[in-house]
Automatic annotation (TrEMBL):
PROSITE patterns: ACT, PDH_ADH. Coiled coil: none annotated. It comes from Pseudomarimonas salicorniae. Pathway: Amino-acid biosynthesis; L-tyrosine biosynthesis; (4-hydroxyphenyl)pyruvate from prephenate (NAD(+) route): step 1/1. This is Prephenate dehydrogenase.
Amino acid sequence: MSAAPTVGIVGLAGAYGRWLERFFRERMGLAVIGCDPALPDGPSAREVRDRADVLLFAVPIRHTARIIAELAADMPERGVPPLWLDVTSIKQAPVAAMQAAPVEVLGLHPMAAPPKSPTLKGRVLVVCEGRLDHWRGFTGRLLDALEAQCVHCAPTEHDQIMARVQALAHAAILSLAGVLAEDEAPLSPPAALLPYRTPIFELANAMMTRILSSNPQIYEDIQFGSQAVAPILDRLAVRTRALADLVADGDEAAREAFRTRFLDAPRSAFGGAPLGEGNAGFERLAWLLADLAEPRCLALHLPEDRPGALRAVLADFEQHGISIESIHSSRSPEGDVQFRIGFSRQQDDTAIRAASARLETAGLACVISLQL
Ligand SMILES: NC(=O)C1=CN([C@@H]2O[C@H](COP(=O)(O)OP(=O)(O)OC[C@H]3O[C@@H](n4cnc5c(N)ncnc54)[C@H](O)[C@@H]3O)[C@@H](O)[C@H]2O)C=CC1
Ligand SMILES: O=C(O)C(=O)Cc1ccc(O)cc1
């Protein structure tokens, strides 16, 4: 094997396959080959397996263990065992299938959709170490280059955790979406409720619409792909039934049972400090939502990514006596940083329009939109 290993990606044309191809080429400087039924002119999976030093599986959850097992079954002898990796949202079955091959094994689970950014910086990456010896140094460099917040656990522990972090959370959100979808006008479509929103409902709506807009196969397979899920969903159903029964009873005893089982017990299980931190996080999001709801705003991006670029924009506002009410950065679908600047109703429209024009003419900002 050469000093710079060749990476093979099974599932090269998929969302993570494409992101990882770019990551390995551009951030690690490695040659990447791959296969995918969506790339019929490319090499076969066995060709990729035999040419790659590092083989990564990024295929649909429901097919992953089978695809790995098929490639493991007729694996030719190699002097140095290759490294096999996967990024599947479940870990027990894929890691077990890789362990059955004469290879070194590392299971990964990025806890985010493939980002617009070139690394997983700011995201969590679950790492399930299977069997590492020759490849230990390389996997250390890989994890460093990914820049994620790594957490380590065993595959079975991972699946128990994901039955809660993913399957249970998604089930609750999809059940909420399903109940709302059953209603009729004027209570439906669900968006008809948004003018009456609370911050909690607005965040719930963001979660419902996120899941319903994403790859449906993933959300199906997260429910159906792990044996850890069904018992957790039973507990959700029992608890929801119990709550509905208490509310139907409606007497003081039912209220007392609600307070004990649905408020006090979870409150003490969460613990004082985590409750405080979580609640403070919610407050920050609620403030953000309130700022974003302010319709008077200027959205812009800074063409020059240099220190002082934002300061020059703010200096123009200062010179012309324009106060801003909020400023938030986000990313466009292409990954460019955008700033959204909110103005109070007291600020003069003409002055804001003139500032917007000046910033563009001076090349200090590209104005994406101006709403007054
Ligand atoms: N998209 C996401 O938000 C996340 C995905 N993942 C994991 O990444 C993996 C891939 O997911 P995505 O890229 O989102 O799915 P995707 O559906 O975009 O891509 C899967 C690719 O695998 C290909 N494929 C199917 N059968 C194949 C076979 N026999 N050989 C080679 N390629 C085959 C498909 O043609 C497709 O291009 C899954 O295991 C998923 O759990 C993990 C975290 C987040
Ligand atoms: O986009 C989001 O918010 C997600 O939660 C995406 C996602 C989907 C599947 C995973 O296993 C991990 C993350």
